Structures are given as structure tokens and as C-alpha cells.
Amino acid sequence: MIRTFKALSALLSYPSTELQETIPAIGDVLRSEAIVSAKARDAIEPLLAEFETGDIFDLQERYVLLFDRSRTLSLNLFEHIHGEGRDRGGAMVDLLETYRAQGFDLVATELPDHLPVLLEFISTLSLGEARELLADAGHIIAALAERLTRRETPYAAVLVALSEIAQASVETEEAQALIAEKDDDPEDLEALDAVYEEAMVTFGPDPNAGCPVSRDILARMDQPLRPASA
């Protein structure tokens, strides 16, 4: 198991007192496995320090404003391709089946395309396999890293580290198209409501209903991998 991906998954999860207690261990993992470069590890240190010393309610409020109330910063990866449209359902079914085929099943309430969930899954794979799966969503990860950097939030360092591992570039046409979208204002509740008035995500019985873009992202994930456990 590659613990670095579990550590990065934890850092991108909703803050809790349990997470705060594990921050020293997370720092040790990032240093000991050295999958994240020294420069990227140093950039993550301010986030670790904030988790250790920050007020849990302040940390939770910041997380919600960033990731739950800013669609362009959503950690649900397919949302950046389909929004809340119906096409997202087919891609979600494919991804869920990919997890289950490797003996990995969801026990939490998050959707399969939630980045922390994906990181939990790839922590069970070899580093080469993990890099390939991250690369499939590399343009989304690179765009998120750029957006978070513009917000001057310490969370940016985690996405920059993932971009580095995936060898993803913000200069690609796909990444630039995502970055070109107007940033959400998490304080504008009226605009937020308008965004989520789009069609609800449906998990139809036909996984082929997903659009070609999302199925291309999942193409490598359909290749046989060694068994994984949740």
C-alpha cells in the first residue's frame, strides 16, 4: 500500500478532530515514502501546521467555502466535465464498477469520483498504476491546483503535489478550457442555487450512457490491475 496517497486523501477530506490528531503521522508518511518531492512537501507544511493548531470550526468553514460551495473547486472530478447533468451517471457507474472489480467498495457517503476516494483506491495499487490513473484526470487536477493557487489557500500545495506525481500540465488545451471558466463566488448563494438547478445526476442501468469524454478518462482504469482491498 502506498500510504502517501492515503495521507493526501486525508488532507483533502472534511476536517475533523480525528484528522487533526493524525497530522504528525501524515507528515511522517510524506517524508518517509518520498513520493512527493521535497519542494512539494515543504509547500504542504503550512497546511499541516494549520490543521495542528487551527480551530476545527474555522477549518471546517474554510473547507465548505472552498470545495462545497465553489463548483469550480469541486473535488468531484466528473462535475468538471458534466456539471450536474445526466451524462455524469454513466461515467460514475463505470468508475464504481472499476473499484469493485479490484475488491474495493465504497463504505462512505461520498461519490465514486470524489478525489479523496480515488486517492484511497490508488493507494492500493503500484506507483506506476497510480500515476496512470492520476494522469487520466491530470487536466482536472492541474486546473484545480491553479485555481487554488489563485485563491492563495494552503490546500493548493496538495493539488500541486498530485499534479507533479501525475506529470500533469496546466498548459494543456483541456486544462486551459477548465481554467477559463469563471470562478464561483462562494458567498453568492443565489448564483450557487442557479448552478445546481441543472438536472440531477442519475445512475442509470446502462453504463455506456456516459459521454465519450468521461469514458476516455476511465479507459486506463478498465485495464486489469492487481487485486486491491478497501
Write a structural description.
This protein is an all-alpha fold and 230 residues long. 59% of the residues lie in helices and 0% in strands. It has helices at 3-11, 17-33, 38-53, 56-68, 79-82, 87-101, 115-122, 127-136, 138-150, 156-166, 173-179, 189-195, 212-217. Helix 9 (138-150) packs parallel to helix 11. Residues 198-230 have low confidence and may be disordered.
Main sheet properties: none
How much helix is in the residues?
55-70%
Number of strands: 0
Structural class: mainly alpha
Jot down its keywords.
single chain, mainly alpha, 230 residues
Give the gist of this structure.
The chain has 230 residues and is mainly α. The chain is 59% helix and 0% strand.
What does the secondary structure layout of this molecule look like, with pairings?
Layout lengths: L2 H9 L5 H17 L4 H16 L2 H13 L10 H4 L4 H15 L13 H8 L4 H10 L1 H13 L5 H11 L6 H7 L9 H7 L16 H6 L13
